[in-house]
Specification:
With about 325 residues, the protein is an alpha/beta fold. Helix content is about 45%, strand content about 15%. The strands form 2 sheets. It has an 8-stranded parallel beta sheet. A two-stranded antiparallel sheet has the order 8-9. A hairpin with a 2-residue loop joins strand 8 and strand 9. The longest helix has 18 residues.
Length: about 325
């Protein structure tokens, strides 16, 4: 399928995505607990400014302000009947900014997790999840997004449900999981698991990878995990701007723009093609990332030691795969020996 993202992938070795949505909106006045999606209708100029901040910083692709746009998430704010409206308008505002950029900029329709746990562990059925994702996907499609962008997923069941919904909407898509629990997602998925999962889908993503998680070092270890599986699909790395710390009553991410510039170059060398930031990533970070991708020559794939030397230590001893991730298993083997 030829679309705006595949055309961009054919012309660029590395695509710069955007940064944080929540962090930037909080800086514009969004209050903790409020639904960012309501600003698509209530504060459209601020949403345009959010999008423009990424484009002006050099992003080739940015996500819509629709992360919590499923009926399940909007129900928490009594807005579950507004799925079509809030997602469509979020996409329309993005399309407006992208079309005014004067260069090719891809609009990716952000689709986050439902916040519910699917059967058999939880009560949400596969059919219900597909229906919710499909409703959001159709609204984003109507608003003019180029590609759907599933992000921050933890469970393979939810990933599969979204893929099925996107096929119903006849839209290309990308998908990322968040590996924030010692190299695994909250539901235990490893980088190897995700690389294998995408190949089993009838409607596989154009690109897949990781977002959010812990810090820049950890996400690059996850990218190397994808590469180790031999995947030929473009890989996504959207890491946080450092580690969150509580400073003066608010959450502050300690990653400097310079560190994120180094991260971007190392993400490219690690094997990622679509590179951006997640929590804490501001336009200042994106400008340094753009500069690094444009000026630093491609290098050899970095070792884990080189990653930590440049970006700081990993948050866990293992990436969640292999025997080193299972100390209790080693202990049992030693007791049997």
């Amino acid at each position: 399928m030829t679309n705006a993202l595949t055309r961009l992938l054919e012309t660029k070795d590395a695509i710069l995505a955007d940064g944080a949505t929540g962090t930037n909106l909080f800086n514009m006045g969004l209050q903790s607990g409020d639904a960012p999606e309501l600003w698509n209708t209530d504060q459209p100029d601020k949403i345009r400014a959010l999008y423009r901040g990424s484009v002006d910083a050099g992003s080739d692709l940015f996500l819509t302000n629709t992360f919590g746009g499923t009926a399940a998430r909007l129900k928490l704010h009594d807005a579950h009947t507004r799925v079509a409206e809030l997602n469509r308008i979020g996409a329309e505002l993005a399309r407006e900014v992208a079309d005014a950029a004067g260069r090719p900029v891809v609009v990716a329709g952000s689709v986050g997790p439902t916040g519910e746990i699917l059967e058999p562990v939880g009560s949400l059925t596969h059919a219900e999840a597909v229906e919710m994702f499909h409703e959001q996907a159709e609204a984003l499609k109507e608003g003019g997004v180029d590609v759907l962008w599933l992000e921050t997923i933890s469970a393979p069941e939810e990933f599969r449900a979204a893929a099925e919904a996107f096929a119903l909407a006849d839209m290309p898509w990308c998908g990322t999981m968040s590996f924030d629990t010692a190299g695994r997602t909250m539901m235990g998925v490893t980088s190897a698991d995700l690389a294998q999962l995408v190949e089993t889908l009838p409607n596989p993503p154009i690109a897949f990878g990781a977002n959010c998680g812990t810090g820049a070092s950890d996400i690059l270890r996850t990218v190397l995990g994808f590469v180790a599986q031999g995947t030929e699909r473009p890989l996504i790395s959207k890491g946080n701007a450092g580690i969150p710390k509580y400073v003066d009553g608010h959450i502050h991410y300690d990653g400097t723009p310079e560190l994120m510039g180094r991260y971007a170059a190392m993400a490219r060398d690690s094997g990622a093609t679509i590179i951006g930031g997640c929590c804490g990533t501001m336009p200042a970070h994106l400008r340094e990332m753009r500069k690094a991708l444009d000026t630093e020559p491609c290098g050899a794939r970095p070792s884990l030691e080189q990653i930590t030397a440049v970006l700081g230590p990993f948050s866990s001893a293992s990436d969640g795969t292999g025997d080193e991730a299972m100390p209790e298993r080693r202990a049992r083997r030693r007791r049997r020996a």
